[in-house]
Amino acid sequence: MLAVRKGRKLLVTTGALLAIGALVTGCSSETGGDSSQPTNASVDGNAAEGETVVIGFSGPAADHGWLGAINSAAIAAGENLGDVDLRVAEGTNDANLQISQVEQFINDDVDAIVLLPTDGAALTAVATKAMNAGIPVVNVDREFSSPAAARTTVLGDNYGMGQSAGNYICERLGDTPDAVVAEIAGVDSLPLTTERSEGFADALETCGLDVDNRVAADFTVAGGEAAASQLLAAAPEIDAIWNHDDDQGHGVLSAIDTAERDEFFMVGGAGSANAMELIKAGESVLEATVVYPSTQAADGVRLARLIAQDKAMSDLVEVEVPKRIVLNAPVVTSDNVDQYLPTAFAS
Predict the structure, then answer these.
(1) Torsions phi, psi for 304 (to 5 deg)
(2) Residues of the signal sequence (predicted)?
(3) Within this chain, do residues 210 and 301 fall inside the same structural domain, yes or no?
(4) Which residue segment(s) compose the domain that 225 sits in?
(5) CA distance linking residue 306 with residue 320, whole number of Å
(6) With a threshold of 0.90, does the pTM exceed it?
(7) Alpha-carbon dihedral of residues 314, 317, 320, 326, nearest 10 degrees?
């Protein structure tokens, strides 16, 4: 284990040293320190291999294209970092099993833990236990119920996804106040679905539109097809549809083809490679998709490495990794699809 490990508990449980670190940095530069030498916050110092750190990673079962991409990207990030020993627990949707996995990481005295919890509230206590043991936890995608449970949290922007989708539809239909807008949500019981729908409604309101027809699916192909069939039967005329998830979008598009409907355009969600290829081809009602990055756990691994090695993000003046990082939710269209395809996931 790292020699610095013994002092890390203070670093992850108190913010007082931030000010001290900044002061020391400032004093060293004022007293003639050699600014040409790499530091832990410089590009060279950040990238330089350090002492190997052991990082435990636990995430849900890869029963969905996006989750599969989350796991594979995290593993690839660990493999590409020469000073990271990434220990990957078996993906699970059982909160109790995931708790036991984190307990094992604590017992193994790893240097950091990256955790995408199957249930953020259920994993809060064990994540807090890891933090109290001096092991920094990077929380990914589904937030814990206490900020004390994580050193850093990496999130996609669910509300921002809805905003992006609504803003795009406003740009296309804002001059048509009686336009009919439909929404095919994911799992309604999940907070992320509520956040996406709230962002969507708020964005539409800015141009005088609202959601006229809404159904919920379950992030699966079959669920998407069933929900879309229900929607299309209930709404004889539609101008635009926002579908929250590109995985369930396969089923949505199948229902649209079966119903022989093409009077509307559709915006997807998550940003799968399959959706982007359809957008690029321009032969489908799918006109755009909103990215929900599948890089979050990979970002978590890289951040865990920086934290465990007492390094910082080189593009920031701050001398420590931020407490919270929210990734952007850009809209992908035929104009910019080539920019996003390389990091898109297969659904």
Answers:
(1) -60, -40
(2) 1-24
(3) no
(4) 158-292+330-343
(5) 9
(6) no
(7) -80
